[in-house]
Design brief:
Elements (H helix, E strand, L loop, with lengths): L2 E3 L7 H11 L6 E3 L4 H6 L6 E5 L5 E6 L5 H13 L2
Parallel strand pairs: 1-2
Antiparallel strand pairs: 3-4
């Protein structure tokens, strides 16, 4: 699990992301897409978006926005992929 920030740097965005990560007790690496390559490759329509990618690098599931039950759904999807 990694988090990737795709916002344009500036206006305190980096500080806001770091503050959120600290407050939410994020326990996975947070990276910054400074080149814009991740944003171009995945073209998220909503933020935040969660992509579940299998061991071959294929996007298997996409969750747009952080909705109730997303965490549980992602956990089930990961379990399903890891069982194969």
């Amino acid at each position: 699990v990694i988090g990737v920030g795709i916002d344009e740097p500036g206006d305190g965005v980096e500080t806001a992301v770091n503050d959120f990560a600290s407050e939410a007790d994020v326990r996975f690496p947070l990276l910054w897409d400074r080149s814009g390559k991740v944003k171009a490759a995945y073209r998220p329509r909503h933020l935040p978006s969660t992509y579940v990618i299998d061991q071959q690098g294929v996007v298997r599931f996409v969750h747009a926005r952080d909705e109730a039950g997303t965490d549980d759904m992602v956990a089930l999807q990961l379990d399903s992929l890891l069982a194969h």
